[in-house]
Each structure stands twice: as structure tokens, then as C-alpha cells.
Fold these 2 entries.
Entry 1:
Amino acid sequence: MMNKKIHFHFLPVLCMLLSVVSVKVSFAQNGDNGKNRTESVQLIPIETAHSATVFEVGKDNRLHMVYLGSKLPENKEYNQIIGQYRQGTDYSEVSDVVYPASGSQNLFEPAISVRHADGNQSLDLKFVSVQTKQMDKDIKLTEIILKDEVYPFEVHLFYKTYFATDVVETWADIMHEEKGSVRMDKFASAGLYLRGSKFWLTHYHGDWAKEMRPEQTLITHGIKTLDSKLGSRADLFQPPVFMIALGQKAREDAGKVIYGSLEWSGNFRVDLELDNLNNLRVIPGINNYASSFDLPKDSLFTTAKFLYTFSDRGQGQASRQLQRWARDNKILDGNGQRLTLLNNWESTYFDFNEDKLRSLLKDTKSLGVDLFLLDDGWFGNSYPRNNDHAGLGDWQANRKKLPNGIASLVKEATNMGVKFGIWLEPEMVNPKSDLYHQHPDWVLKQAKRPEYYFRNQLVLDLTNPAVQDFIFRIVDTLFTQNPGLAYIKWDCNAVIYNAYSLHESQQGRLYIDYVQGLYNVLKRIRAKYPKIPMMLCSGGGGRVDYGALQYFTEFWPSDNTDPLERIYMQWEYSYFYPAIATANHVTNWGKQPLKYRVDVAMMGKMGFDIPVHDLSAPDLNFCQASVVNYNKIKDIIWHGDQYRLQSPWTNDVASLMYVDRDKMHGVIFNYLVNARYGSGSHTPIKWKGLDPNRKYRIREINLYPGTTSTLKGDDVLSGDFLMTIGYNPKVDASRSSVILVADAVQS
Ligand code: GLA
């Protein structure tokens, strides 16, 4: 699927605009300043299977937002909604305008702010036309054209609906025909206006090894802004995902909730403003922080996409919608297969040579996983990458560690029947590198200020096409020289400090063009290597968003692989991202037994990052058997529907399950998360998503060698029983993690 991103077209815009008009409403002659707009001229409902976003063109010719919620059976009744709410005073007549601009009658946070070519700062967008195109059975695109009456300035709003999964993607094209450039000070993707009584916001904060910590707050009057200014990625302290529960706090299986996320891998900003009428304005977009720029005449600026989904059946339903949408429409190869792997990072760090890697290839084979992933430390000669102070940028195999290059290892792996993958951090440079000395102008930094490092490195200037080309060639050369190479872990361990590009004529474009430059490279890579699996990594979960995931098959949620921590993190990630894309590795972090660590890694895309040769014989046997077990259930985890059963935040035992689409098979994960005396599952846990009329045989899998299940082993129970009474996995301190499988019994 083609995705339009930020770009500048130098096209004659006007003729393009006029050709798409299907419905035209002429501007009010004298203008009524927005008063008396209760009578709508035209209603524009944007519907999915269960939800509707409804706009109306008021008598003032502005586009107002009427509603976002459950689809009503009587389409024409959307007309009646606004009348049921308290009407505002004169100054709030424009407060529900869909894409509010600044400098005219809007008194609230704008979606767009500009300075026209003549220096004037006022913009007032009026409706021109709407057009709808059915793209395929599921996808519909609505384009609404708005135009200023005084200046030749236009905004086209797009709403792409995914009918079955109730997801909407929205973005804006901004263009003008003024006599010079227009300065863009704010350029959000969209504006939502939600009417209601109370709004509960769930958002996330974190840091390295502390990703996805949720907070839920009642939104109070004023503006709450979620944002990031890291430049090279969206998240480290705050991810670009959030949810808004309407009326009351978010609940798993009931209540109205909207999930939102910006598809953008850099600075983002979401303003949530509760106004004088107690309604909520949501304005998501690329962050305008240090990003004012001039838009030349006849050019087009396309904002990032904002996606949202509404559910009136709680968070669980919303997340299943989003997960399915992501697999069907966004994540690269979202419905395909994934490779289990052995990574060497935590078993060797930078300290390895060819012999050590050969023995790790044997370990990969003996473990039974699909691929060996060679991590950081394999490159750099003038400045060998023996620690994180040197070598980034010099992507040639280190001759001392790997005298026969990567090629001989790839060959050896192939001969052994395992695949080979490699770590890259191609956007970065260590000052101790040949690259830094050869191309000082390729580095983002302030020439007059001392260099300031994040993990001893600087960020390359991806706004520069020469740098984009360099990065593409790193990847292309690796694949050309090693056709057997099967996987890339793409890391990004630094933020942009001292933002300045020698290549940019307008520094205000740097943060935007950086991300666009990255996407250009990724597009080129995907054009040549459409299916090679790539992991999106950033010293942990700093870099997952749906802008990037269209080029990646999976992401690294956190360097923190302590399984107890991971239960909470993976739980929170699962609201927004499907298990097939969530890479979980078994490591030596944490105090839990090996079985617990493996079981936690299984509820996503499993890998290992442990010294296999140090494992005792029973531990190795267990890991080998786990891989076999995982291969039997991975399809359900990767492609099925996920149900969160019992939250780790409020229970001794966290529990979640996956059910395949035919409701024939389920996998249920249960983990003890409370170490206090007597903690465990003392009552049955209600399962979800099964067919009430089918019977299921329940068995425990992935037992540690020499242990037996305390469950009967031959329970056959109806879906109805399992969902209304539940099933007790008998989790306690002596069996702190339990995986159950439910298979429908053929009648
Ligand atoms: C980041 C990644 C780790 C590892 C190191 C290598 O921190 O998250 O998994 O690849 O880089 O330097």
C-alpha cells in the first residue's frame, strides 16, 4: 500500500484542486460570523462497521464536528445530536470546527497556524467540497476541501476508513497559491472535537528499561500536551499512543474508548484541550517545536497520518480492532511468518571472534531456533567496535575478529541449516570513525558549540540525499555480498542534540526532513528487499510507531527483559501492537526461573539471548522442547485474537489468551506477579473469545523436565463454562507460570 508522507510538490495546484470537486457549497455572501449555524447545510458521516465520525457544514460554511461514537442505525439522526447539547455563546460557535486555524475567530488551540506571504497571520477555512472514493471492499477514502475566502490557501482533509476493523486514518494536505512562501507555524494532522461529560486519558511515560508505564487521569480544563522532541525517534520518554475513555474510566470489556496514535517516527505533539463547554479538542500532529518553515507557492505539504479507532465495548475490543488492522494493513508482512532466533548480545557483548560465533551457530542449531542474530561489535577497522565509543559508521567487518568476513559465517550458517541476521545502526556515527573524519558535513551538530553525545555517538544528517544513499548502500552491499543474509536488527541509540544541518537551507525543516529522509531510505530498501524481516530497535522501545512499522516486521519493546517487568510492559504494548510484531527474548535478566522467562517470551515473537553453552542439561532440554512447543502454538499467538483476562496491576496472577480465528484453539498464559506469601490463583479465571457452544479439551504445556502438572489433564469443558465460570490454572509460588492450551473437541 502506498503511503503519502510529508513531501513538497511543485505542481500547479489549483487545477488539481478543481478537478476533484464533487459537491460544492457556495460561500455565504455576507458571512454570519458563525452565528445561527444550528441548521446544517450538509452532513458528512464517515462510517465504519460500528463507528461513525460525523461532520456538518454549517450555515457559516465551516466544517464542524458533530460526533464520534457508535454508528447510529438512523443515519439522518446524526442531525439531531448537536441540538441535544448546550449551545455555546457567540465565541464558541466556531469551537467545534474540525481543523481550527489561528488568527480569525477561533479562540482555542489551532490545528494550523500560518503567516501568509504578505505577513498576515489570519486563516479561516471554509468548506468547498467533499468527495468519497471506495478503494476496495474494506477501504474508503473521503477528501474534504477547505479554503480560505481571502487568501488562496487550501487544506484538504483525508479520512481513510477501514470498515471491518473500525480504524480511521486521517491527515491533511496543505497548499497555497500566494505570491511568495507561507510560513507554517503549526500543521497538525487532524482535529477531533468530542462532546461528553468526562474524558479519561490513558497515556504512557518511561525511559530506558522503563518503557510503557501507564497513567490514567481525568482530563481537566486547559491543555494537556503529549509530545516528544528527540528528533530521531518518537519515544523514549513518551510514546505516540494514547486512549481516551468517554464518560468513565477505561474498562477492559465495557465502555466507550478511543485509541489514537500518530504514524510518525520523530517529534510528535498531541494537544488535548477541554474547553468552556466541557468538550474535548484533540489535535495530533508532527511537533511544531523548532519547526516553523516556509511553504513555497504551488507546493504541497502532507502531514503525518493520525490513526484512531473507537469501541463501545471497552479497551479489549479496541485493541483487537487495532491489532487486526495493523496485521492486515500496516505492519510489513503482518499476516506472515516470523523467525525465532538466538541473539549474541547478552552472551558476548563486543567480545567475540569467528570461533566463538561458530560455536554460537551450533548453539542456534541445537536450540532449534530459525536464525542466529549477530549483534553489535562486528565492524570497524581503523576504529574497531570493541565498545560503544568507536566504529559506528564504518560498516566493514573487523578483520581481527572476523578475518573471513561476514560471508563465511553466512555460508557456514546456511550449510548448517540455520539463517543468519545482522545488527546495524546505520543512522549514527562515532566521532572515532573513518566516516566522521571523511564526512564531517554529514553529521548533525552545531559547529560553534562543543559536540554533545548520546551513547558516545552523533546522528547523521538524513536530510541529505548523499547520506540517504550511503545508508541504503550499507544495507544493499550487505545483501549483495551475502545473498543468504536473512534478517536485520536496525538500531537507533541516540537522540538529536544540537540540531543543525549543513544541508538544510531552512533549519525549521530539519526534524521533519530527518524522518522523511529515513522513510526515503526504508522505501528504497523495501523496493529492493520487500520481505526481509527487520526489527525496529532503539535501545529498547524508543522507536515503535505505525509510521515505521510499515517497513518493519517487528520491534524491540525494551532492553529490560526481566520477565516480571516484561509482563507489565508487554501487557501495555498489547493495547496498541500485535504479538506478531513484539519481539521478546529469553535472557538472564531477573530472578525468575528459566521456565518463567521462556513462558513470558512466548507471548509474542520469541527469541533467546542467553549463553546456551552455559545451560545445564535439563535447562537446555527445556529450551529445546519450548521451541518445539512454541512452533505448535505460534500461529495462534501471531495471527489470532488476543484477550487480556486478568491484569498484572490488580491481581496476583496476570493472565491473557490468544484464540485462533475459527475459535478452535486457544493458548492461555498465566504468571504469578506477586511474590508475597500465599499469592496465587485461588479462583477460576474467566476465559474469553471462545465459542460458547463448543467443548474444549484443556492441557498444560511447556512443563519443566521432571515436573508434572497439578491439573487433571483431561478436562473437557464447554466454551460457555470457561467464559462464565472460568478455569483455575493453579498458579502459586511452586508453579509460577502456567501455559494452557484449549483445543476444540470434534463432535
Ligand atoms: C541497543 C539494543 C541492544 C543491543 C545494543 C548493541 O541497546 O537495544 O539490544 O543491540 O544496542 O549496542
Note: Residues 223 and 538 are 30 Å apart (CA to CA).
Entry 2:
Amino acid sequence: MTRAFKTLDDLGDVTGQRVLVREDLNVPMDDGRVTDDTRLRATLPTVTELADKGAIVLVLAHFGRPKGQRNPEMSLALVVKPYEQVLGRPVRFIDDQGAADAIATMRPGDIGVIENTRFDPGEEANAPATIDRLAALGDIYVNDAFSAAHRAHASTEGLAHRLPAYAGRAMEAELDALDKALGNPEHPVAAVVGGAKVSTKLDVLKHLVAKVDHLIIGGGMANTFLAARGVDVGKSLCEHDLTATADAIMDAADRAGCTVHLPYDVVVAKEFAANPSSLRTCNVHEVAADEMILDIGPAATEALADVLKTCRTLVWNGPLGAFETPPFDTATVTLARTAAALTREGSLVSVAGGGDTVAALNQAGVADRFTFVSTAGGAFLEWMEGRELPGVAALAG
Ligand code: ADP
Ligand code: MG
């Protein structure tokens, strides 16, 4: 496969070379403990590969939002111990003051973490002086943080223009998966777009109608589309001011040959609570004035499973219902399991992303059975909008 960017496979001998590796170490912490080490684990392939090849590995990352000020509560020194445990190797903390001297004492195979890039106001400003300061610390730049690639910061974008630049293993895997899902997918392609509001995903919807064969709309945003079609959605979450926009999206889909799937049955309740006594399933035309749509119905879910069976590619962002509250996770869990089974059979490439979407797939117990699940959040959504990510574009040269 020819790619627009270089990977670690394109590196020559790195023995003794200082490699600046941009990673995402922005882990949630509580009382000095890392509560979810997913991001630390994601750095393992790149960091260990480079260290094993004899590089001097210098990890660059941000931590929290210090807004260009030094802040001991957001020092990456706090992450060094947990990071050592995940890596199973010693990790040196490198203060950004006197960094060059500290690095000069490091040996091939050593791993260091440089202080929070965002302590320097020039990081987010992508300032030439900051890029110079960082570039002087290394010989090679590796960007392994897709989740920060939607930001044009010194450590995510600027450095790629100053040093020989490569994608790390996690970045490479993410870009390959996203390319298979929307860049160069096998058709038919289905997109599931759910979540609370149309307004947060307008650009996603506009981009997808031109790219995919089936656009499956669920979640609260389906209510706005249903309202646009003249359905009375009762007390449901619905952006009535966006019905004309929803209409325009459906027209654009028509012109592009994209089939829009809206639910024809729904799960409703009078109050938003777990297993409410007012729970019932009905046709979308039978929602009462005092009811809310909180999930799509079983008939719609089954029809959508049939759509997925005809598809080769699935890209999914946003739950189909208010999945945090049972039983309104039913459609999301059921369709996710169908997608996982089709993926396992080899008939579907399935890529999903989004904070709540990842939580929902974990709840369904299928996150590891999708082809790829992106934990990148903002960067994943910008990619779904068809935007060029500055950190990725800079790797392409
Ligand atoms: P993601 O984080 O994966 O991008 P969103 O943040 O867009 O997803 O949407 C997730 C939220 O949408 C969840 O909190 C879920 O409860 C809510 N949601 C889904 N369907 C409905 C619905 N019918 N009514 C109200 N909220 C809904
Ligand atoms: Mg969300």
C-alpha cells in the first residue's frame, strides 16, 4: 500500500538518534492515580520499537490545559511513574529547562518524557521559537498522537516541517483504518449517525451524504429528521429550528444516491428514567403529545441489521438511543452486536468513534470486535466532517 506519509518502516538506523515522539499522555487522574491507562498503553508499540532499535526516545505530550503557564498540578512528572509501570521500563522525566543537557546524558534505548508542551504559550500558537526549541532537542520527529492531530500546534504540526517526520504505529493504524472506512472504502458503505443533536453533527451529516450509500440516523437527532417529515414527536428532544436543515440534508442525500434510514418504530416513555412504567414501543406516527422517543424500535433495528448485511463497510458515530439508561440501550447494543458478528465473519469493515459511542460499544461488549474503534474524540469527528487534520497533513510533507 502506498501512503502519503512515512512510517517507522521507512526509518534507517536510529541507533543513538534522538527521536521526538508526540504521544497522547493526557490521562484522567484521581488522587495521583491514573484511572484509565488506555492512552498510555496505546503508545507502547511505537515507544518500545524505537527504544529496542537503539533510539533515544523523547516523548512529547500535553497534559491538561495549563494555558501557557507552568502549573505543577499539570506537570507530566506526575505521569512518569504510572507510565513506567505500563511500559515495564524506566522512564526519565526531562524538565523543559535544561532539557538539552539532560538529554545529552541519555544512552541508546533510554526513554524520557519531556515536560508538558503546553507550559509554553508557543505550543498552541505554533510559534517558530517554540518549534526551534523543540527541534534542537531531537534528530527525528514521530507523530503518534492522532487524537491531537486536529490541532496545528508546535508539537503536533510545526515540528513535522522542521525535522524528518514519520507516523508512529498508533497513528499509522488509525489512518489506515479511517482510510478503509471513508477514504477508500469498499462499497456499499453504511454510516450510523446518532447522538443527541443534529446541531453538533451538521458537518458530519453533510459530508457523509456525499460519501456513503446508506445513512442511518438514530438518537435524538432522528427526531429532528422525523419532525421535518411531518411526524409529531411529542416531548422528544428535537431541534425544531433545524427541520429545514434536515430537509436539505435529505435532499442532498437523494441527489447523491444515498439512502437515508429513519426509524419507523420507536421506544417511548412519559418520563426519562430507567425502566419507566410508561414505557412502550409504537409506530413513529403514534407518539403521544406527552411522550418522548428514547430509542429506536425493534422493527427498525432489525431492518437496519438487514441493511448492514448488504454492506462491506460501516462507520459509526453516536448511539441510537439514550443508552446510559436501560432499556434505551437496546437498539444500540443489538445493532452493535450485529456489526461485530458481520465483522467477525469477514463481510464488514467496521470503524467507530466518539466518546459516548465507545462507551456504548464497551457496554455492548463488542468494542474489541470492531475492525477499529477510535478513542480520538475531536480529531475523529473532524475527520468524519471531511476536514484535513493539520497534524496529518504535515506528515504528508
Ligand atoms: P458521541 O460522544 O459518541 O459523539 P454524542 O455525544 O453525539 O455521541 O451523543 C450521545 C448522547 O446522545 C448520549 O448521552 C445519549 O443519551 C444521547 N441520546 C441518544 N438518543 C437520544 C434520545 N432519543 N433522546 C435524548 N438523548 C439521546
Ligand atoms: Mg458525546
Note: The chain is about 35% helix and 15% strand.
